[in-house]
Amino acid sequence: MSDSLQRRYDFIILFDVKDGNPNGDPDAGNLPRIDAETGHGLVTDVSLKRKVRNYIEMKLGGQPPYDIFVKEKAILNQTIDKAYISLGIDLTKDSNDGKKRKDKGKAQGEEVDKGRQFMCQNFYDIRTFGAVLSTGANAGQVRGPVQITFARSIDPIVSLEHSITRMAVTTEADAEKQSGDNRTMGRKFTVPYGLYCAYGFVSAPLANQTGFSEEDLALLWESLTNMFEHDRSAARGLMSTRKLIIFEHSSKMGDIPVQKLFDTVAIKRTNSNKPVRDFSDYDISIARDEIPASVTLIEK
């Protein structure tokens, strides 16, 4: 493919939250996720990928080749079944390789390769992040070229708890219990401010296997930059992508270990004597002289 990736990419994404809950933990009453030992806030990779998926689906309408496999209310096995129907492969008969089918309704041999290729071609998130497609009709597994770490706050966060009231009840029985006062109480958790940092990696060899192209890469950068713009909610407060730092290598395998590139980025508070409440309270610097000439620095 002429637009196949020929270079490795590593990137850092910085985003912040103000008066919101960036990623609630359902096992802790939806409190903001936190490192119990250090107090630093956490946002899972799954949460960030969800926002990328939502942006792509919203912009391109969920149509192939930019359909989304893991989306709300999706039944994944049915989606895999539809892939084989589109390919004209009948999984109830003997397999196309002439061998007796071991399990009816389940692909085998070359059929799995065809199913996996079809899924990569039609679903953006599969050829980007990979997927386990071995359930149901079985289309194997896809190792995605793009991987993202958990995001961690630069400084420890403070989790605030707020009491809230609702001036209504849901049922007549609840109204009777309230003796005419329909107020109900609730809780809301917010982080006053937090700047989060996540790391990402794009493997060119794996991209060539899934068909992840230069156009797909451009969409990834766009979605990471704008992923909060159409994902607003009262619970999440004000969230914004503040900076996307991309390191473009000159080869598929890369020119330097990734940690040496990430170490060139320093994030420091401008005033340690007051609480951090805004992005301007941080200074971000990059030691450009420590980056090899073969690696191109891109800032968005």
Characterize the structure shown.
- The chain contains 8 helices and 14 strands.
- It is of the alpha+beta class.
- The protein has a domain of 205 residues.
- The strands form 4 sheets. Strands 1, 4, 7, 8, 9, 10, 11 and 14 form an 8-stranded antiparallel β-sheet that branches. It has a two-stranded antiparallel sheet with strand order 2-3. Strands 5-6 form a two-stranded antiparallel sheet.
- The protein is flat, with a radius of gyration of 23 Å.
- 29% of the residues are buried.
- The model has no long low-confidence stretch (mean pLDDT 93).
Task: Describe how the helices and strands are arranged.
Blueprint: E1 9-20, E2 24-25, E3 31-32, E4 40-43, H1 45-60, H2 76-87, H3 110-122, H4 124-129, E5 130-132, E6 141-143, E7 146-148, E8 151-156, E9 160-166, H5 172-177, E10 184-202, H6 204-210, H7 214-226, E11 238-248, H8 258-262, E12 265-269, E13 282-286, E14 296-299
Antiparallel strand pairs: 1-10, 1-11, 2-3, 4-8, 5-6, 7-10, 8-10, 9-10, 11-14, 12-13
